[in-house]
């Protein structure tokens, strides 16, 4: 960034780290606290040339030979009015209020408040959304994007609308939605109430009854014709045609 009087070099976190006097070429290094406010100014040799402290809402108290307009939250402060340009809105540290309404006031319920009225734990360098200071938790709607539950509201509404439209179209076409599925459910419910087993259970019962009867009569349906088994146990089992099984069912 470059102005008529000064030029600035910004670091990876978009915080200014160096100020250059365009007239004399003098370099001043800016040191910040964890909120991003400029606290210390040093020269090229590391000598402290200026320092600042701030009230909770940003009112500055500075001393030293060197100064910088990038003070509270690292944002530009007018030397004439003391107002701070927070990119999207202008902030007055003397009143702890922005001069214009928060665009997200329907969520924050705070039209002019700075950082959700919690400047110790939050910052608002762009004038649009408070951010949690590193290591300090900060939650929606003041910090960061809304959680998935909030983001999903619109998708949920769209899904409900789509479902209503589908049902309405089905009704208009004289086709009840999921009639076949509903009939199947009613049939299963009737079976449960009457104690009637399902087809798979009937097959198992039939097989079990057949094996019980054959065992009582000494007959094995799994052996070849005229072959006997179980002699070691003192029994004899004769072959039976599969077609004869009907009389046991």
Descriptive notes:
Strand 4 and strand 5 form a beta hairpin. Helices cover 26% and strands 20% of the residues. It contains four helices and twelve strands. With 249 residues, the chain is α+β, with helices and mostly antiparallel strands. The protein is elongated. A six-stranded antiparallel sheet has the order 1-2-3-4-5-6, with no helix packed on it. Strands 7-8-9-10 form a four-stranded antiparallel sheet, with no helix packed on it. Among the domains are: 6-100, no CATH class; 199-248, no CATH class.
How would you summarize the topology of this molecule?
Layout: E1 6-10, E2 16-21, E3 27-32, E4 38-42, E5 48-54, E6 60-64, E7 76-77, E8 84-86, E9 89-92, E10 97-98, H1 105-108, E11 122-123, E12 131-132, H2 148-172, H3 179-194, H4 199-217
Antiparallel strand pairs: 1-2, 2-3, 3-4, 4-5, 5-6, 7-8, 8-9, 9-10, 11-12
């Amino acid at each position: 960034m470059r102005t008529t009087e000064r030029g600035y070099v910004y670091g990876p976190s978009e915080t200014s780290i160096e100020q250059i006097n365009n007239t004399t070429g003098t370099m001043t290094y800016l040191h910040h606290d964890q909120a991003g406010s400029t606290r210390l100014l040093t020269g090229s040799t590391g000598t402290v040339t200026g320092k600042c402290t701030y009230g909770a809402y940003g009112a500055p108290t500075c001393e030293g030979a060197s100064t910088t307009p990038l003070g509270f939250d690292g944002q530009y402060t007018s030397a004439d009015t003391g107002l701070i340009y927070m990119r999207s809105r202008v902030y007055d540290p003397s009143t702890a209020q922005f001069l214009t309404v928060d665009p997200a006031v329907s969520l924050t319920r705070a039209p002019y408040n700075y950082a959700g009225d919690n400047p110790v734990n939050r910052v608002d360098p762009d004038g649009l959304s408070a951010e949690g200071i590193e290591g300090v938790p900060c939650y929606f709607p003041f910090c960061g994007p809304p959680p998935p539950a909030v983001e999903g509201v619109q998708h949920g509404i769209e899904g409900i609308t789509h479902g209503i439209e589908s049902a309405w179209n089905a009704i208009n076409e004289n086709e009840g939605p999921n009639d076949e599925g509903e009939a199947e459910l009613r049939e299963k419910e009737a079976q449960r109430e009457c104690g009637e087993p399902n087809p798979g259970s009937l097959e198992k019962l039939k097989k079990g009854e057949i094996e019980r009867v054959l065992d009582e009569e000494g007959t094995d349906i799994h052996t070849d014709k005229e072959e006997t088994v179980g002699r070691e146990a003192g029994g004899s089992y004769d072959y039976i045609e599969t077609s004869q099984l009907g009389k046991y069912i």
